[in-house]
Amino acid sequence: MRALATLYDTDPPQSAAQRRALWTRAGVADDELSATVLVGGLRPAGDGLLARVATACTEAGQATSLTLAHVRYPGEFILSEAPVPVVHVVENPSILALALRRFGPSCPPLVCTSGWPNSAAIQLLRMLADHGADLRYHGDFDGEGIRIAAYVLDKTSARPWRMTAGDYRAAVARNPRGPQPGRITEAPWDLELAQIMAGYGTAVVEELVADVLLKDLAGVAQQRQPPGRP
Predict the structure, then answer these.
(1) Which long-range contacts (C-beta less than 8 Å, at least 24 apart) are formed by 164-168?
(2) 6: CB partners within 8 A, 6+ apart
(3) Averaged over 148-157, what is the pLDDT?
């Protein structure tokens, strides 16, 4: 526990709930129900439980919370979109909520890790990639956010989405008075990013660039308009 707390730059757990959360962060699940992942806009084909649940929620313009059991035993699950579907991955639930509010049933496929991705999130992303999805990840521009992004990119086939040093500079220019970014570690996908963040000394949380992310999603959403919707 102390080693994991040091690895994730957090305080050692003081309760059973905190211990379970730390194990889950490390990808170790003690059951198939505690670890969940938020999903929106996913409309797979197939008669499996995961496909039916995800599609029903998408058609209602709602998010769904999938358990590790859903992901481990999906049943028939087919990503039927062509060309290869892009699944965007975000760190914060507020981004998923904003996307669903704006796009409704036309929301592009979105997965939210809710901070450090647990075993359900990682397994879902790997399953989506195995079915042909192109994963693209965005998170907070702070020390913890960079470590989360590096973890997701290492454990899955996801690629960075607006997570370069240039994207950070643009975000700081619009939000120059953010909090301190905390302990900064290297971003493997952009070796300049950590240096630039240390120089500015400012964190930019994902919500502050929500308009940029939603603009990226708007073109995809337009292509997913259900028949009969304006």
Answers:
(1) 164/189, 164/190, 164/193, 165/190, 165/192, 165/193, 165/196, 167/209, 168/141, 168/193, 168/196, 168/197, 168/200, 168/204
(2) none
(3) 95
CA 165 to chain centre: 20
d(CA 219, CA 51): 24
Q: How far apart are CA 51 and CA 109, in angstroms?
A: 13
Q: Which two tokens stand for residue 164?
A: 């370069």
Collapse the DSSP code of 53 into the 3-class scheme (helix H, G, I; strand E, B; otherwise coil) and give the result: helix
Peptide bond into 117 cis (omega under 30): no
**Rounded-to-integer distance, Cα 227 and Cα 157, Å:** 32
Determine the number of helices (DSSP H) and then strands (DSSP E) in the chain. Answer: 10, 6
pLDDT at 20: 74
Tokens of 220: 């995809």
Rounded to whole angstroms, how far apart are CA atoms 160 and 157?
10
- Whole-model pTM: value is 0.85
pLDDT digits (tens, 9 = 90+) for 207-220: 999 999 999 999 88
| pLDDT tens digits, one per residue of 100-142 | 999 999 999 999 999 999 889 999 999 999 999 999 999 999 9
